[in-house]
Amino acid sequence: MPTPTEVVAHMMHQDAFSQWLGITVLEVNEGYSKITMMVRAEMVNGFGIVHGGIAFSLADSAFAFACNNRNNLSVALDTSINFLKPVAVNDVLVAIAREIHNGKSTGLYQIEIINQKNELVALFKGCCFRTGKQLVAVKSSL
Q1: pLDDT digits over 51-100, tens only?
Q2: Superfamily of 4-130 according to CATH
Q3: What are phi and psi of 57, to 5 degrees?
């Protein structure tokens, strides 16, 4: 059975969007992930602050890594985010995903996004559906 770290490494290898964001995986355990990224100039919206979709996308990646790392393909059913502080270019964001509920067919996760000043800038909640399919093929031992 692949470890949570192996599953997330497999996911990251195929995840062009998380790679474009510049995400680095810091830590992974069952039902948990911690990732980081630096905000770049092309991520700013028309108001001169970072587009909300960037923080959402960071949290969504942390959510995906946390809910899939048991090698059970899980997809989002419902997500929401609260933006608490503006994010600026060159901010270093960390997203920490924690499992609240791990059911047979669903999971519930809370993701905190903090900046380099240790300020909570956004809070994301995600519910996933577990498909029962494997992300990484498990080799049988004969």
Answers
A1: 999 999 999 999 999 999 999 999 999 999 999 999 999 999 999 999 99
A2: Hotdog Thioesterase (3.10.129.10)
A3: -65, -40
